[in-house]
Design goal:
By secondary structure, this protein is α+β, with helices and mostly antiparallel strands. It contains three helices and seven strands. The model has no long low-confidence stretch (mean pLDDT about 90).
Length: about 120
């Protein structure tokens, strides 16, 4: 996957892959490429934001925890977002998450939301 100028790659592993969430958050469906994030594991956290829970249909969402163990891997998709869409993703994610830069198994440097 090659990203255009100004594109913001975002590794998604949870609700941002859902069509209804993408349409509400970005106003369009965003194609992505499968990828893997090594050194992290998935956990689940309760979501108190009623709008986010209603939109996703889930009151618990996956959240990443860094382990630095290469045997831990999270499977997901890389989306190519505009800077404005990345801002919209920041607004969608609740305060339990923070956005960090990571290197994926493919070598792509991407943003991802992890637990605080």
């Amino acid at each position: 996957m090659s990203f255009g100028s100004g594109a913001e790659p975002l590794f998604t592993y949870g609700t941002l892959q859902l069509p209804d969430v993408q349409l509400d958050t970005f106003g369009r469906l965003i194609p992505g490429e499968d990828d893997v994030l090594p050194g992290y594991r998935l956990e689940w956290t309760d979501i108190d934001d009623e709008r986010v829970a209603q939109l996703s249909g889930l009151d618990a969402h996956p959240i990443l925890r860094r382990t630095d163990d290469p045997r831990d891997r999270v499977f997901g998709r890389v989306l190519e977002l505009t800077p404005e869409e990345l801002d919209a993703a920041d607004e969608y994610e609740v305060s339990l998450y923070r956005r960090v830069s990571v290197r994926l198994a493919s070598g792509i440097h991407a943003w991802v939301y992890v637990g605080h």
